[in-house]
Amino acid sequence: MGGKRKASQDLRGHSPPVDQTLTLEGPPEDAKSRDSHFAELYSKAPDFQQLALQDADFARLWKKHKTDFFNDPECVMQLTKSLLKLDFGLKLELPDDRLCPPVLNRHNYLMWLKGLLDSTSYEKQDRKIVGLDIGTGASCIYPLMGCTERDWDFIATDIDPKSLEYARKNVALNGLDNRIKVVERKPTDALIPLDDLNVNSISFTMSNPPFYKSEEELLESAKQKSRPPFTACTGAKVEMVTDGGEVEFVDRMLKESLALQERVQWYTSMFGFLTSLIEFVDKLREHKIDNYAVTEFIQGSKTRRWAVAWSFGNMRPAQSVARGIKTAVSKNVLPEITEERVVDIPLQEKIGDFADRFRSELEKLDLITWEWDTERLEGIGRAAGRVWARAWRRRKQRGGAEDQKVVDVKCEFAFKVSIRVGKDDVAVHCRWLEGHNPVTFESFRGYLKKTARSNINPQSTENKA
Predict the structure, then answer these.
(1) Domain-wise residue ranges, the chain
(2) Same fold, 90-333 and 339-457
(3) Quick one: which of 160, 241, 296, 356 has the fewest CB in 10 Å?
(4) How many CB atoms lie within 10 A of CB 279?
(5) Where in this protein does the record put region Disordered (predicted)?
(6) How many C-beta neighbours within 10 Å does residue 60 have?
(7) Out of 2.40.50.220, 3.30.310.80, 1.10.730.10, 3.40.50.2300, which CATH number does the structure's domain 339-457 have?
(8) Shortest CA distance to 99 belongs to which of 133, 70, 138, 61?
């Protein structure tokens, strides 16, 4: 990547001076640099003056339509093509009568997916990831961008012949036939066709389902906006309308997931309406699915989307991923917390002395596995139950918790404990890694608080006594 564009504060008005030496050739090749690049890519809005300098096709339309750019479907389509070319090194062909996807919104979804997958695996980026894009559209944009941002593979499905034709064309155009499989489906087929494709398991599903229940609802929604959504001007009915609307569509995914269970690590979908997300979270709770995540994607001052993910697995996502909605919503929508700053204690000695005693107490627990990083002052433990509780110790003494080979023991709770050093104090943080019972996490936090406080410079305490 040759550099990153500066952002203008007003996309339609004055822009800062253009850096005429800046060239963009797509993302870096190595994984770490690629992740850093994409994490910062759209932290600010794209500078259209800079885009015009770098792409002649964009410049032609920008010069002509500066004041009404977003009201012209041709301009919007060119913006998508230019961003994909300059920032992702991707080529795109689209028909005039299919949806033109906004790149920034799609990028936000992929960034959230990366956080979801990275925070729910001990293998991090080394494992093979296969995703299913349900309703990939003519652009096939999620698989194209996903393969560029990470070394992932995709199955891309759709029911519309014309969208499938262009999706296959775009995959071939970018030389990704060996990583993206485009599959035709019928409206009555399963949305998650693992058995039909002889696929045992995949890492995630993703979908941007049609928002509306009917054409009437679509038109009514457009009337209520200050200007018509540009995508509505180019999209086909099959892309924007589905029986029952988006909630019914994602509910089909939910019903299939109840049978597939852990054959998919994370089931995810986007929503166009917050009310849909709230309604769907209630459905998750009806089925006693406790491991889920919600987030919102905010682009500009008007566009807002929401997303949900759920899993039957044991790994809990990072709190920033699981509770990504920052605007005011009912607490009932948010999942249980997975991280907490448990306690702050005054620093009265060398941090190494406190860390050694604290670690020693944790090592006394009857853990399946325990690893401590001395440099980072953090440890990861996995347990078969509430091994810190008196009830566990009593049961152990009575022989109720018989010794087993570690490989045979099922992990019921896993955690990461971190010690963070401030100027005058020390903070103990805890991250819930595995498990389904929030009461267990709460109990463990109480144990950590008590343990940390009891290990504050015991020698000083003895001298005072």
Answers:
(1) 90-333, 339-457
(2) no
(3) 356
(4) 15
(5) 1-35
(6) 12
(7) 3.30.310.80
(8) 138
Cα 382 to Cα 369: distance, rounded to the nearest angstrom: 5
Q: Which of 432, 312, 310, 413 is nearest to 367 (CA)?
A: 413
pTM of the complete model: 0.87
Tokens, residue 269: 């979908």
Does the domain formed by 90-333 have CATH 3.10.20.880?
no
